[in-house]
Amino acid sequence: MQNSGAVYLNRERLSEIESELNDLRFNKRKMIAEKIAEARAHGDISENAEYDAAREEQSLLEIKIAKLENLLSRVKIIDPSDMPEGQVYILSSVKVKDLTHNEEINMTMVSPEEADIEFDKIAVTSPVGQALLGKKVGDIVEVSVGNSKIEYQILEINK
Q1: DSSP 8-state secondary structure symbol assigned to residue 24
Q2: What digits encode the pLDDT tens for the residues 46-76?
Q3: Where are the domains of the chain?
Q4: What single-letter DSSP state applies at residue 9?
Q5: CA distance to 29, 36, 41, 46, 48, per residue, from 33 (Å)
Q6: Half-sphere CA count of 96, side-chain side, radius 13 A
Q7: pTM, full prediction
Q8: Cβ–Cβ < 8 Å for 109, 94
Q9: What distances in angstroms separate CA 116 from CA 31, 110, 128, one per listed residue?
Q10: Which fold has domain 7-77?
């Protein structure tokens, strides 16, 4: 879990993560402690599934808190206005056309820790991220995915 690489975030995202961490520390911890106390009040904890579930939830919460604390300890704030105009860089929002499947895709370039394909957040270290970094509108990039290749044409770049 001890990753020493920098995590690049803008101030808005940093604030979101700090808020989430505070909520976990002060609200979620309290809620789980109350669940544990309630389960303990039911008597013998050696065969108490409710108690075991609450302790497991507490363990998972502490892992999540530790991960967020580690991430925050490595944050480097970047200002999108400091990035070169018209090129894909970390925190850029990029609209591409998948020339292989003839569809448009919007994605945001992020640090690996922030990557989430469900929300179209692509790690700059991923094959797609590496292919797009530094490119400009109109450029076509080819990305190897397994045994096949996908071509993307950059349609739009926003900060």
Answers
A1: I
A2: 777 888 899 999 999 999 999 999 999 999 8
A3: 7-77, 80-158
A4: E
A5: 6, 5, 12, 18, 16
A6: 30
A7: 0.70
A8: yes
A9: 28, 9, 13
A10: Helix Hairpins (1.10.287)
